[in-house]
Amino acid sequence: MFIKHKSKPILSGLITNFGFNHLLETMPIIYFHAADRPFYWKNKTLLKTFLTTIFKKEKHLGKRVDYIFCSDEHLLSMNQQFLQHDTYTDILTFNLTEEPASGIVAEIYISTDRVKKNAVQHGTTYQEELLRVMIHGILHLCGYRDKTASEKTLMREKEAFYINALESISQ
After folding, report:
1. Strands (E), 10-155
2. 162 C-beta neighbours (distance < 10 Å), count
3. What is the overall mean pLDDT for the chain?
4. What is the percent of the chain where pLDDT is above 70?
5. What's the CA gap between 171 and 167, in Å, rounded?
6. 104-111 and 62-70 strand pairing
7. How far apart are CA 148 and CA 53, in angstroms?
């Protein structure tokens, strides 16, 4: 992975560079869970803080996001059960927010099997593809869609912006 520093200086830089000095006071709680696949990331604290900044940058209030990492089969079953889609996917995002004014509450399910396959197909690393998918879920929660060509283009631009932002503060 591209993170080379300890979390404290990077977090300070992240907060300062994005202009979120009050971030730690209002930080949504982001949790990582393993359904049937483990989740590894070198600096989870930095990742959680960075994902939180996306809500702030996109002018949305995040309250709690649970990322659940699973297999292709697990996510296929959920896709069939909840969306009646009989296809593999890399991510399912469920917005569970009851009162928007109090902040976004969501569950984001990610197939690490599919992320690995997509990384190979797109000629990128597993870590970068996983980061892209994690950002993708938050962007959906912030109102971005990817059904039309123009929506997909904007979504990819936003994903690239945030990936580059994390890479720039992590070097």
Report:
1. 29-34, 62-70, 91-95, 104-111
2. 23
3. 86
4. 83
5. 6
6. parallel
7. 26
Number of Cα atoms under 13 Å in the Cβ half of residue 73: 2
- Rounded to whole angstroms, the Cα distance separating 38 from 110 reads 11
Distance, in Å, from the CA atom of 170 to the CA atom of 6, rounded to the nearest integer, reads: 9
Residue 9, both tokens? 């200086």
Q: For the residues of 82-108, what is the DSSP string, one character each?
A: HH---S--SEEEEE--S-GGG-EEEEE
Residue 23 pLDDT exceeds 70: no
State the Cα–Cα distance between residues 96 and 18, nearest whole angstrom: 27
For residue 33, pLDDT beyond 60: yes
Distance, CA of 107 to CA of 91 (rounded, Å): 10
- Sheet of 29-34: strands edge to edge? 29-34, 62-70, 104-111, 91-95
Task: Report strand pairing: 91-95 vs 104-111.
Answer: antiparallel
